[in-house]
Every structure is written in C-alpha cells, then in structure tokens.
Amino acid sequence: MIVLKRSWRKYSIDNLEQVMKVKIKSWTGVATWRWVANDDSCGICRMPFDGCCSDCRLPGDDCPLVWGQCSHCFHIHCIMKWLQSQQLHQQCPMCRQEWKFKE
Amino acid sequence: MAAVRTADSRQQWEIIKKNFCIDGDFSQINDSGEDLQLVVRLVQQLGAGQLVLDLALDAIWLALRQSVVPKFWQHFVTFEAQTNGKEDDAGEGSVEVMSRVATAVSELYDSAGSFVPQINRCEMLCEQSGAKFEDCIPGGLMEHFKLHLRATLHSQMPSSFMHLLHKFYSAAFKVFYQAEVGSQVEESEEVTDEPVPCGGCGGATDACHCQAITNTFCQVNKQLYGLDLLERLAGDIISSLLLSVITDHVSTTCRDSYDQSCINQLEKWVENVVVGWLELVYCGSRGQLSSADAAIQTMVSNNLNQTYMTALYHTYTTTRIDQLFNIVIEYPESQPALEDIRECLDRTHLRDRLVESLRSAIQTRLLHPGVNTTDVLHAYISAIKALRVLDPKGVLLELVSEPVRQYLRGREDTVRYIVTSLTDESCSELSEELLVAAPLVLDDSHSDDDNMDNWETWTPDPVHAHNLKSKSQRTADIISMLVNIYGSKDVFITEYRTILADRILSQFSYDTEREIRYLEHLKVRFGETLALLHKCEVMVKDVADSKRINTSINSDENPHREKQKFPVSAMILSAQFWPSFKEERLQVPEEVTKELENYTEAFQDLKGNRTLNWKPHLGQVQLEIELKNRTLNLTVTPTQATIIYHFQERNRWSIDDLSTMTQVPKTVLRRKITYWQTQGVLQEVESDVFVLVEGEETGEEGQTAAAGLPLADIAPPAIEEDEAESVMASAQDQREEELQVLWSYIVGMLTNLDCLPLERIHAMLKMFVQGSVECSPQELRAFLDRKVRQHQLLLTNGLYKLPKN
Amino acid sequence: MYLFVVEFPTPSVPLRGPCLPQQKRLQKELMSLLKEPPAGVTVDVDTAHTKLTEWVVHMEGAAGTLYEGEKFQLQFKFSPKYPFDSPEVIFVGDNIPVHPHIYSNGHICLSILTEDWSPALSVQAICLSIISMLSSCKEKKRPPDNSYYVKTCSANPKKTKWWYHDDTV
C-alpha cells in the first residue's frame, strides 16, 4: 500500500510542468506619461514639459505642447503669449525662424 | 481688728503671712478671721506691698509646681503604667480613658478653683498698694495665674499624655461623627433587626454609652475652657481630627469617579461637620453657636474658612492630581471633575505640583515603547481637550504637553497615524476635527498676537507662562496642535501625499469621490495655495483620467483590442506631481511586455506626442492557476505573478536563476516568494531552491493541507501583509531630497557672499524656493547645524560659511 | 527720554507667498546664476532677495581684454511681463565701461535688450552677450552721440528707439 503511494507521488512530480497553467485574466499596470520632445523643459517658462506652464495648474491635456515647423516645441500657452506680444515678426524664440505651427 | 492694730511687728507679719498664705498653707484661707481690708492697710503701712505680693505669688506658683500639677499628671502616669503593653483602642479602653481624663480634669479644675480667693486677695493688694506682679501682663492676675498653670502643666507633661488626650477626643469625635453622619446614612440604609454594635461608642446597641461619653466630654471641655486650657492642650487634636476626617471623606468621595461634580457637596459637608464639632467642643452641644460668645463665633468661622475649607481644596486637589492622568484619559466623561479642579486650583497653590505630577505620570505611563502611537496620540488629544477645561489660556497644556510632542516627534509613524486618522471615517475623533472649517494656527504663522484691536480685552499671561509660545498658538484647535508637533504643514501634507499615493497604487480603485472630499477639507484647513496640496489634486485627477483612458483604449471600437491576449489597464501618473517611488526592478514575462507595449501604442494614438514609461513592479494582476487537482483565482502583484509564471516552464527554480530571469534582487525575491509558499503552491526543498507543489499528497510538512479541498475556488486572499508596505519613498527621504535642493542654493549663496546669519539665509531661500519647498527657520537651523557637524559648513559668531578647501 | 521701548518681533514668515508665474522663472534663473555663473559674473543675492524683480550683477573685465581688472555693476529690472518682455539692463555705479556701445549714463546699445529679445534668452545669456561685447572691443571710447544722447534720453533705455549701427563691435 505504502509502496504504491510513493510511486504515485514520484509520477506526479515528474509530470508537474505539464500540469500547472498560469492564466493571466487581467493586468493593471502603472506608468508615467511624458511628452515626446527634444527637451525636458519649456524654453519660455523654463518649467518641465511634463509639468505645466506657469499659468496652469493641471498638466497634460490642459497644458499641451505645440511644435513649430522648426521642430522646437513649447507649452501652447507660452508660445501663444509670445506670439501675441510680437507685432511685426512671429519668430520662434529659440531659432528666430518664422514661427509656423507644425500640422 | 484690735489685734491687727496693736500687735507687734512679729505678730503683724504672722497675720500677713496667714492671710496671703505665704507659707504655702492654703487650707484656711477663707477663715483667717481677720478683716482683709485691715490686713491690706497694714501691709501698706509697712510699705511692704510689693514684698508681700511677691511672696504670696511665689507661694502659689510653688503650690502649682509641687502639688496641683504633679497630682494632675499622676492620674495619667499611673494610667499609663496600668495599660502599658495593652495596645487596645477598642471601646473599653476609651471608656477608661474618658473617665480618667474626666476625673483628672475635674480635680484640676477644683484645685485651681481653690486658689481663686487667694488670687482675688492679691488682686486687691495690687490695687491698693500699687504693687506690681512681674511685668504686669494684661488681663489681670487671674490671667497671670492661668498662664502659670499652663506653663507648669506643660513643663511637667508626661510624654504619653497627648496620646491619651487624643484617644479621649477621638472617642468623642467618633460618637459625634456617628451621630452627625450616621444619621444621614441611616435614612438610606435598610434597618436590620440584627443587633449591630453602636457606630459611635462600639458598645452593643442596648448598652450604648454614647450619651455618657458626650456628657463627660462636654464637662471636660467646659472645665478646660474655664482654665483656658482647651485650646492649648487640645486645639491641635481637635483640628487634626477634623482634618483627618476631611481627608478620608474627600478621598472616599473622589475615588475613581470623575463624572460628577462634588466640590459643592463637599463644601457643605465640611461646613456641617466642622461647625458641628466645634460647637460641641466649645459650646457644649449642637446648635448653640448662635448664642455663644462673639469670640467663639469668630473663631469658628475663621477656622472654617481659613483652615478647613483650605484643607478641603488642598486635599481635593491633591487627590485629583494623583488621578489626573486617568481623568485626562477619560475626557470628556471626566469634565465635571476637571471643572472642580479648576475651581480649586484658583484657591490653592498647586499648579506647579499639578504640572509636575501630570508630566511624570505621562512620562511613566505613556511615553514608552510599550504604548502604541495611536494610544499616545489619543492621550495627547484628550490632554489637549481636558487641559483646556482646566485652563482655557492653554498655559498648563503647553507645559504638560511639550514632552508628549517631543516624544511623538521622535516616533516615525506619528504623522502617518495622524494623517490616516484624519482621513479615516472610522476614527471619528479626528476626521470630525478636519471638518472644522478654520485655517490652521501654526507655530510659524504669525497671527493676531500683536493685534491691537482687542487691547481692551487683553489679559496678561499667568506668571508661570514665561518662555511659552504665543497665546493664539496655545489655544489653537486640535488639528493645529497636532500639526504643531512638527511645526510645519509640509511634513503633514507630504505624508498625506505618500498615503494617498499608496492608497491609489494598492487599491487600484478608480473611485475618487472620497479622496476628492478629503482634499477639499484639507484645502480649507491647510490653505488653498499649498503647493503640495495642488500636487495631490493632480494625483487624484490622474486616477480619473486613467479611468477614461482605460475605457477608451479597451473599448470595442479600438483596433488595438483585437490582438489582445488579456485585458490590460493602467494607472497613468503625472510623474512631476507624485512623490518619488522606491526604485524596484522587474522583468515581466515576454507575453506581458508585449501587451504593455500594445497599450503604450494605443495610448500614443490616443494622446499624440505622449508616451508611457511603465513601472513594471507596480500594479495588480488577476491570475487563474490551474493545478492538477485545483484551480486558484488570485489577485497578486506583478512580481508575484512573474514568479509563478516562470514555474510553468520549469518546476524547480533556484533564487539565483529566478533573480537573473526576473531582474528582481534576491532579497526581494525571497520575500515575495513566501506568498506562494503560504498559498501551498511552492515549496522550498533546499536552501534557496523552490519547487512547484502539485497535489495534496505531496505535502509532507502538512503546510499544504489547504490544498486538500478539491478544486477549491479560493477567494482571492487579501494581499499579503508585507505587500502593504509603501511603494513610495519614505516621507523622510522625500524631505531629505527637498532639503538637498535647498542645500545647493545655500552653497551658491555662501560662495557669493562668504558668510551669512541664519535669518538672512532663510530670507533668501524664501525668495528662491517660494511656493515649492517650505522650511521653517527652526528646521533650517537644524539642517544647517547638521551640515556643521558634517564639516560641510562652519559656524562662527552666528555666521555660517563654507569651509575653505 | 523714552518711557518704554516697544520691541516688534521680527516675523518669521514661512517660505511661501503669492507666486506669480513670472516669479517662478526668475527664481530658476537666479538659482542657476548662483550655482553656475559665467566666468567673471556674480549675482548680488543681497539685492535680489529683497526684490526678485530687481537684481544687481557684478561683472569683471575678462583677462586679456581692454577691461581686464575693471569691475562693473549691471542693473536688471524685470517687468511683470517678463520673459515676454525684455528686462531693462543698464550699467550702474562708479565705473561705467568706456565702450562704443555703452553710454556714459550706463545705457547699452544691444539689440537683444530690445527688438531682438526672445523669451528663450535669459539673464545669463545677456551677461554673456555683454561680456563678449566688452571683450571684442578694440578701442575704449564712448559712442559718438554720447553727450547728446545722455541729455535727451529717457531714464529707461527701453524707451530709446535704438539704431543698431554696428554689429561687429
């Protein structure tokens, strides 16, 4: 009787890998978001892109970035303020090329 | 008469001697047969007034010294000899004492009375011959006689007399007290038929000799009073009996009950007992005071107010002081007791003792490692409330609670407990305090102390309030007091932020309503503009945003969903606004990596120009584990999921291999793997080697007994305790980070300006870091001093400077 | 004479206050100037800390130039519109550098201070420009219209309509 039991156990260990299956039913992960930009912070307000411009309280959707055709980017509120303050030329603050929004 | 006039000088002297008892024979004083007037005149003629007076008085004093007083004391000396060795205070003994004292006193009274004619004679001599006795003590010769009697008595008093006298008065007092108080008690008590010994004299009810005792007692008092001896001999005893009964009564009344005010009742009781007893002693029976001498009336009322009421307040207060710790803890039930104490404190000088005693009680009962932080906090809160009752100005509180604050400051989990209980509805005590819509009053904020608008109602601080904080801070509300343990809002909000982060990242509940509510309360209390609270707001908003993003990405219309093997959702955080995370590594299984990448792509499509950085070790995974004879449905952490996932490929892993595979450090891995051991899924077969456990029969150690349940659909267990540990860097570490930022500024300043005092550094930092880092002057000083100790800074003459290198 | 002396406590105000958007940037600039100043430039923290919108920067003439060993002070004033509006920058103090683009009242003829200003510029960038302007000078002399200009100009150089005649010096 005892002998029989032992041999059964041996058998079961040998076959373990075929037996257990781990099925992932759902996975909730944690991530931080960031802007895909050349720089870490805005050349106008000097605040990090992943934060918000100095006029805003909420980052992300509420304080988005915009890119110029020159490939420089700024908080949208910062560049708009700058462009509004310029009467003659609409230049990129970084490269002084004419500012055009990248489509 | 003729004999007086005609007698020769020798006879005349004999006559004088006889009439003034100069030879000490007082037996025939009343029947000398001579006309006193003539004798006095004779003395005058001889011009011997002074001489005769001196001799006559000397004879009296001698008689007192040699006969009257020794005879009086003899009663007690022999009594003492008889009762020596028999230590009994029982009724029989006191009866003996009663009669002995009565006999002695009455004999003394009589023999002293026998001198009265002689005194009168001498008095007359003084008047007529102008002779003077000693220094002419006011009150006349009679008073002088009493004085001598007292002095002589005292000079010969046997040592045991006071003890006996005490017995005498005790016995009488007991009878009195029984009658006085016993009568009050009887009304409420059931009358039993059992013969009980009399509470007054201790004799059987039918043989009660209370009345006899009282009678004897009154007679003795009357005689002693007549001799002016009552106050001198028994005054202390009379009052000590009262004082001790007051002490006993107060401590019985106050024992362990704090929920009723008893001071008024005690005052009445004291007045009743004191007046009753003094009446009995000085007037001979109850209710006689109003008809007694004015002198006695004044004496009784003075004693009552000055001695006995004071004793009451003193005893009451000291009794309560000994209980104060419990009284404080039992607030608010103990409110009545506290109000009593407050009243008594004003009439005694026990404030310092109260502070000292409570401080030491707190020290021994509260401030040691055996007490939970929650209990210390609870006691602190009770103390704040209770001591406010005692002293609305908060001076006592300040004095008593400083050590508690200091202690709490040293406990690492204090802030966490406070913040948790503030935002926990089950701990109503504090969460209700949070609802008080008032801004905090902090040590570092400047409030209306210098406000001159209310100068008319200004009151000075009590004298012992020196060196204390300003008035407004002492009377601040509970939460302010708690925050003031640290003196800074930032420490609190930093901790709140960490707790919030932990809550979000352990529960993964997307319901933010509760957090928003607390945040609103905190904003009211801590100030809308606090940068850290703003960060918390963003954190809560991240949760809401994540929910929306998840819904959008996992919706049926999203093409990304088609290739999905299992649903992935995410908590997407705005890194700038979250506290720093503990850095942990984890390589999740390939299958999972792919799914996370898919999610990232979907996110990029949704949010354009934004991408995700995963923190793979954080999250929540639902697993279904199929074993040979059972299926487990579990909710686990990504690390735990990854561990068990790899056991699909191999049933045996060493910690080393698994660590290489998952990139989780071995120490962490060992800790995490215990979860699967307790689930009975893994087993450590040799040191650091784990194998998969299949069926119930394999459990040699019996630890897999649970697996015996066939195909158990075990409910997801609460995530294991060690998983409850924070995923965030500790508040201390975070603070350290912030201070490090300040340090770089300070180095910049000192490089520029060579050396600066603390105030200037603080003022400049204020300018530079405005709105981002808060640092009180005190904290800054502590920080700079630490830098001095680390030799990174020099301090000379109050100026900080960088060391030259 | 005095009946009593009233001592007002120095308020110990926490490091916080109303924070204008503009201030955040100025704080950042001030700190970066403190931590990594360009060679020969030190910001006078003392003046800056009392009023964040007004700084004095000490400047040393660079070695190997006409101004070697000389010390100057530059005053910066920032309007509420900064950085969308350029700061007002003039030389102040005893020693105004003698330079063809610097007037004896301290006004500087430098295009980035007015029409070529960009919010991407900074105090640090201005300092570097001025150092480079000084360093490249070949002859110490005042601008030709100096005496007329100083008599007629506004105190604020930004009110001057500059005619940037020479970009090489």
Automatic annotation (TrEMBL), chain A:
Primary location group: nucleus
Its GO CC terms are: anaphase-promoting complex
Pfam families xrefs: zf-ANAPC11
Instruction: Enumerate the UniProt keywords alphabetically.
Output: Cell cycle, Cell division, Metal-binding, Mitosis, Nucleus, Ubl conjugation pathway, Zinc, Zinc-finger
GO annotation, biological process:
anaphase-promoting complex-dependent catabolic process; cell division
Query: Record's InterPro entries?
Result: RING-box_E3_Ubiquitin_Ligase, RING-H2_APC11, Znf_RING, Znf_RING/FYVE/PHD
Family recorded in the similarity comment: Belongs to the RING-box family.
The protein's name is: Anaphase-promoting complex subunit 11
Q: Which organism is it from?
A: Penaeus vannamei
List the lineage, top down.
Eukaryota, Metazoa, Ecdysozoa, Arthropoda, Crustacea
UniProtKB/TrEMBL annotation, chain B:
Q: Which keywords does UniProt give here?
A: Cell cycle, Cell division, Mitosis, Ubl conjugation pathway
Q: Which family does it belong to?
A: Belongs to the cullin family.
Q: Indicate the segments forming the Cullin family profile domain, all copies.
A: 479-677
Q: What is this protein called?
A: Anaphase-promoting complex subunit 2
UniProt cross-references to SMART domains, sorted A to Z: APC2 (SM01013), CULLIN (SM00182)
One GO BP annotation is: metaphase/anaphase transition of mitotic cell cycle
Q: Establish whether keyword Secreted is in the entry.
A: no
Q: Spell out the molecular function terms from Gene Ontology.
A: ubiquitin protein ligase binding
GO cellular component terms, alphabetically, are: anaphase-promoting complex
TrEMBL record, chain C:
Q: What class of enzyme is it?
A: transferase
Provide the organism lineage as a comma list. Eukaryota, Metazoa, Ecdysozoa, Arthropoda, Crustacea
Q: Which residues form a coiled coil?
A: none
Name of the protein in its database record: N-terminal E2 ubiquitin-conjugating enzyme
Annotated Gene3D superfamilies: Ubiquitin Conjugating Enzyme
| One annotated GO molecular function | ubiquitin conjugating enzyme activity
A single BP term in Gene Ontology: protein ubiquitination
Q: Which UniProt keywords apply?
A: Transferase, Ubl conjugation pathway
Stored InterPro entries: Ub_conjugating_enzyme (IPR050113), UBC (IPR000608), UBQ-conjugating_enzyme/RWD (IPR016135)
Q: Which residues form the UBC core domain?
A: 21-169
Q: What is the superkingdom listed in this entry's lineage?
A: Eukaryota
PANTHER family from the xrefs?
UBIQUITIN-CONJUGATING ENZYME E2 (PTHR24067)
Catalyses: S-ubiquitinyl-[E1 ubiquitin-activating enzyme]-L-cysteine + [E2 ubiquitin-conjugating enzyme]-L-cysteine = [E1 ubiquitin-activating enzyme]-L-cysteine + S-ubiquitinyl-[E2 ubiquitin-conjugating enzyme]-L-cysteine; S-ubiquitinyl-[E1 ubiquitin-activating enzyme]-L-cysteine + [acceptor protein]-N-terminal-amino acid = [E1 ubiquitin-activating enzyme]-L-cysteine + N-terminal-ubiquitinyl-[acceptor protein]
Q: What is its EC number?
A: 2.3.2.23, 2.3.2.25
